[in-house]
Design a protein that fits this description.
With 247 residues, the protein is mostly helical. The protein is built from five helices and three strands, in the order ααααββαβ. It has two domains: 83 residues, no CATH class; 137 residues, Helix Hairpins, CATH 1.10.287. A hairpin with a 2-residue loop joins strand 1 and strand 2. The longest helix has 83 residues.
């Protein structure tokens, strides 16, 4: 299918230059969209911080329980010693009082043993939790450093790509201004329908878009500067002056 009008080959050259910028813009915008802002690493760092905080909280609770049991042991031992002093000091001679003191000393002794067992268990728990706290804190710090490094790389890439997009958009505006308005509208309408690609090169005798054969008279018209669209994919055809110019 032939396109509208003719004109100089310069029209197609200007449109092809615009197509190159559009292709690069699409690549850069896709790369910008695909940038990883660190969501996965951020979640990992938060999970590591949460685990470290949980272990630290359990450690504080265990240390508080240990201090409490140690104080209870000290108090119990002090009471036991006072009771033994009264029991064996000779001050108390009443048999009933002595029997009561004997029972108190025995009960305090049993309480002391219970506290000692509990303290030993808490000491083991605290030791384990201290090691876990050190390990999880180290893991959290490492995860946060990985996140910080990734964010630095992400920000650098984002700034670079945003700057390139801005530069390409300026180039596109300048090139679009040099293209005939009707031809530009046709190109942009085709691009909107064909995945962003409104113009393709003729490679040999084939369309660079759909790879179907381009009739010879179509190639001649393109060579003469006419705007011609592919019969199959409907994109505007371009005939590069040199094979290396094909993109």
């Amino acid at each position: 299918m032939s396109g509208q009008g003719g004109g100089e080959r310069a029209v197609l050259e200007a449109l092809w230059a615009l197509r190159q910028v559009d292709a690069r813009l699409a690549e850069v915008r896709a790369a910008r969209e695909a940038l990883d802002d660190g969501g996965r690493l951020r979640a990992e760092a938060e999970a590591a911080r949460t685990e470290a905080r949980g272990v630290a909280a359990r450690l504080r609770a265990a240390e508080a329980a240990l201090r409490d049991k140690e104080l209870q042991l000290e108090s119990t031992e002090a009471k036991r010693k006072r009771a033994e002093a009264d029991l064996y000091g000779g001050r108390i001679r009443n048999p009933k009082e002595l029997e009561s003191l004997q029972g108190e000393v025995a009960a305090l002794g049993r309480a002391r043993e219970q506290y000692e067992d509990q303290i030993l268990a808490l000491l083991e728990e605290v030791e384990g939790l201290r090691a876990a706290a050190e390990r999880t804190l180290g893991a959290a710090e490492a995860a946060e450093e990985r996140l910080r490094a990734h964010v630095r790389e992400y920000e650098a890439a984002r700034v670079r790509l945003d700057a390139e997009v801005e530069e390409l958009e300026a180039q596109r505006a300048a090139l679009a201004g040099a293209v005939d308005a009707a031809v530009l509208r046709k190109y942009e309408a085709i691009a909107a329908q064909e995945g962003g690609v409104g113009m393709v090169p003729i490679v040999g005798e084939y369309c660079g878009g759909c790879h179907q054969t381009v009739p010879p008279h179509f190639i001649s018209r393109v060579r003469d500067g006419h705007v011609v669209t592919c019969e199959r994919c409907h994109r505007i055809l371009y005939l590069p002056a040199w094979p290396d110019a094909v993109r």
